[in-house]
Amino acid sequence: MTPLSRRGIAAVVGVAIGVLPAVTPSAMAADPTPVPAPLVDLDDDTASPSASPSASPSSSLPSSPSENSTPSNSTLSNSTLSPTSDVLGGSQLGKRGVVADLSAGAAKLPQVKARTWLLADATTGEILAAKNPHKARRPASTLKTLTALTLLPQLEPDATWIGTARAQNTYGSKAGIRKGREYTIDELFAGLLLPSGNDAAIALAQAHSTVSATVAEMNQVARELQAYNTTAKNPSGLDAKGQFSTAYDLALIGRAAIARDDFLTYAGAKSAEFPNPRKPKKNGKERKPITIYNQNDLVMENYRGAIGVKTGYTSQAGRTFIGAAQRGNTTLIVSLMGIREPSDEAARKLLNWGFQNRGQIVSIGELVPPLSAMEPTVAEETVVPTAPTPVATTVRGSAPQELLAEPELSSLSPTSWGWLTVFTIAVVLALVSLIRRIITRKQRRALT
User: Fold this and answer.
1) Which one of the listed residues 48, 52, 82, 141 is annotated catalytic?
2) Which one of 52, 82, 173, 196 is the catalytic residue?
3) Catalytic residue among 131, 144, 174, 349
4) 50 belongs to the catalytic site
5) What is the domain partition of the chain in residue ranges?
6) What's the pTM?
7) Of the chain's two ends, which shows fewer C-beta atoms within 10 Å, N or C?
8) pLDDT tens digits for 387-398?
9) 144 annotated active-site
10) CATH code that applies to domain 114-374
11) Is 66 an annotated catalytic residue?
């Protein structure tokens, strides 16, 4: 075979093979993954993780039209990410230190001694002010809000549970559970949310299924709420390796919790009766119930409109707090972590500022809605033409265009693509064989 003929065959094969990638459908590429908020490491805080506490998809965003306008004080759209930022809730939430927009005449923010915090309108989702809201810290017992939010829909208040040694022997704050004693689920939720009983957290998890299974469901609920930087390792909030949250996430969790009437019944109560942890009397009679009290001083001290939510404290987390209050048609929620003053005082200062200046506060971001709230409610209708006929389609911003309604390559199944590849290769081999025969005949004629 002459060099010229070899080059001719190579050219044919190259052209034929080059067709294959050109017809590969764009649908074969991986779909873009939703991007959670990155953890913003804003200061040297030994209580925060050195790396992201949860696995996060790439922080890069798909390209989108840029918008130079800043958020207004109107309700933001229900989008996971702002068009110009990869920070969940809006680009301003990624800034260092305290962030607030006072351009509409709102008063200066009060001094709050906390590492990180967030104040938001729980009804609209507008964030009114924040400090390092995506900074990861240990949540302490504010995590019990997520425990309650996970288990309230799945447990019947009148159902009963028998105390276990694991619940009785847990450490930290307790409601007073004893092994072998019978409790109602209603009593256990009161023990969880009022005195912040770690034993009640174990009890509710065991009443549902197992502690590990409950923790897994808690993390699923966190992802559904888009609380991507929250990782639960236990149902109580006791310090544990890898267990972290953020002020932003706690606000998302707290907002979802106060939307439930049953949660508000517990979190807003000042006290409740709980079975006496002491052994029965010698005659076998149970002792009178004890009274358990709410640890939230906003509720106990009758802060105007207070409706909960949850306090917390551990040696590694310091003081943590989620609080909410309702006045008229406005419900504000505040979350604080690493508090260095009484928790209720820190929350009270922010809530007072929010209620007094609500009409003049320009929002700096939003509390994103749960993923389920972002799903389309009306299914799109698909029209399949019975024959390849011209179909008029209108593209936004352009005139109607006539397109031929024919099957697109992107609609082919993997099996169809396999057969198409085999057919293409067969055609290439047939062309090569034909060219070889033609060249061989020419060479024979030249020799004769």
Assistant:
1) 141
2) 196
3) 144
4) no
5) 1-31+413-448, 114-374
6) 0.69
7) C
8) 433 333 333 333
9) yes
10) 3.40.710.10
11) no
